Amino acid sequence: xxxxxxxYHGLVANIHDVARKAGVSATTAKRAIRDPDKLAAGTLExxxxxxxxxxxxxxxVASALRSGRTTTVGLIIGSIVExxxxxxxxxxxxxxxxxxxxxxxxxxxxxxxxxxxHLHTFNGNRVSGLILRSAYDSGNLPYLExxxxxxxxxxxxxxFVPGSPLSHVLxxxxxxxxxxxxxxxxxxxxxIAALGSFHRTLNPDERVQTFPLALARHGIPLxxxxxxxxxxxxxxxxxxxxxxxxxxxxxxALFSITGSMAGGAYRALRHxxxxxxxxxxxxxxxxxxxxxxxxxxxxxxxxxxxxxxxAAVRLLFEQMRxxxxxxxxxxxxxxxxxxxxxxxxxxx
Amino acid sequence: xxxxxxxYHGLVANIHDVARKAGVSATTAKRAIRDPDKLAAGTLExxxxxxxxxxxxxxxVASALRSGRTTTVGLIIGSIVExxxxxxxxxxxxxxxxxxxxxxxxxxxxxxxxxxxHLHTFNGNRVSGLILRSAYDSGNLPYLExxxxxxxxxxxxxxFVPGSPLSHVLxxxxxxxxxxxxxxxxxxxxxIAALGSFHRTLNPDERVQTFPLALARHGIPLxxxxxxxxxxxxxxxxxxxxxxxxxxxxxxALFSITGSMAGGAYRALRHxxxxxxxxxxxxxxxxxxxxxxxxxxxxxxxxxxxxxxxAAVRLLFEQMRxxxxxxxxxxxxxxxxxxxxxxxxxxx
DNA sequence: CCTACGGATGGACTCGTGGCCATAACGTAG
DNA sequence: CTACGTTATGGCCACGAGTCCATCCGTAGG
Lengths: 348, 348
Description:
The structure is a homodimer. The first copy, chain A, folds into three domains: 15-58, 434 Repressor (Amino-terminal Domain) (Orthogonal Bundle), CATH 1.10.260; 71-171 and 305-334, Rossmann fold (3-Layer(aba) Sandwich), CATH 3.40.50; 173-303, 3-Layer(aba) Sandwich (Rossmann fold). Chain A starts with 14 loop residues before the first helix and ends in a 10-residue tail after the last strand. By secondary structure, chain A is an alpha/beta fold. Helix content of chain A is 42%, strand content 14%. In chain A, the strands form two sheets. Chain A has a six-stranded parallel sheet, with helices on both faces.
């Protein structure tokens, strides 16, 4: 009581308490849990009774220190309230937990300084693995490489830092953008704006970067007036849409880079009194439940979230099993175009 | 290398490596971090340089074992993809992290057997605190009380197990239901159905239990045909709504107990060709972004999610500070009725 | 009757850090 | 010059479990 250390003793039982109660040694008591067939039937029974009586549960902290490995995996996503990440999180948490590991979660708000703090915490807690949706800049790459060298398994999801040597699980963004643009062009659109950030260094987003190329493939130019740098939030999409619809030659179709940006755009269009799809067509990434509830329902490029989450976990545990010998794997999954009626021929 | 233990040595530096590199003892090296003013300037500088060079970061696992306290808090919610819980999670995670603690997350799917597994994991990992949205039945209460006796701080949110002696943070469900019913009655509705589970023991939900009482206050009976036992999901709300609208005297207004149930109901009404609010009025708990996007926008009872999350964290850290002396606190927060146009006078 | 062997059990040491106590060097008051 | 306090530093053990090695005992084979 004078040591300043929190004393569980008497509050929470350890293996020695169990051993004492059962009248055996600590080693024997432990064997009742780890390899019970090595014990005599009577001993096993006595130890089991003691475990039951004392409500003994092995201290994972001590186990982690001694064994050098935790059963904890870190997950860093962009934002917990973005439904895409919520679904991804659910898939990952369930899969990881079914493998006997726990998940510690944090979100980086797409900022690498916030991410850095999380990485230090995870590293200090000696997580066995890390799944992360990196912030846009590559400032944490050296730190990630040191964690990797230390034996921590790492998989990037949804995005990867340019130049990253890590395994990742991504959507086939280029293919999805091509398909989306083709969908809009097929309805006769030639003035198409993407709702997303065009800041090349701040947000080097594949979708936005593919967009002008996809347009060019159809002989369509991207007006400078359609190019802005915004953050991928519903709020920024709202004001971006207001701006876009007020330029000299406003777009006849909007292509939203994320599901929540589509929500912002939708609100902006309604506030402007513009009808979808009569006045403006709308196409979005992600397939959120509300997109089916609005009138008309929104065309979207659905991501196989569950599949991607499982793939990330699979790669992670492969790395944890193989260590430094694990191959670098880059997986891409295709989006699925869901047509509901928010894209129609442009008026005029 | 023959010990079978994962050897970090050489891979990750510990305080002894730092001490050796700086030419001091481990105790001195540690002081460079914990109380630097006790060191001579030159020594401090040398240790700092060694820490820098070796990328030393204290092992939280060893620290936790020795000190008897972790800087980890567990969070158990109903479902990560339910936006209410996503927002609650964000509020809690941010607040907890700002206090220097990490959050481990799990969802119980409202099932106490799933919850039990999570509790064992958290307990084994020696979390300092636990915030949970309990499953409906009280099967884990004895276990929770043992954790509490062991010194783990526990706060229930959004719901509490009947008979629970734990602190909690809840919505003023009764008041919200009264306000919602009053809102509907003021528009002339007398045939009102609640979308929620009426199973008294399986889902002893305050909102559903208050509902008949609130109706009675206005002299309105609750037809037996409106009472069903369903799970609080969009899917169940969908089929429940289909059923309700087909009874002899269908309701003229629906009162949804959760935001995602309102989504299911909305889809069902559209599939039935019923217009909101001309044919059926709709009122819902939770204020989700999509409720503003549909036509008409949905009236809702918004929960102060951020406030509730912060309150839960505050109670938790109070308990962690005061230990067994911490008072049991039961907090209630009022819902806010947001009127948008999905409630109107019933036809006929 | 002695030895060998295998099954059952116990002991000792270790993981990295936290806390306490000891020690050395140096200055100051008596 | 001694006694004592202060400052700067080092040594040691414990937290609870994992791993290796040692020991004890009974039995079967010679």
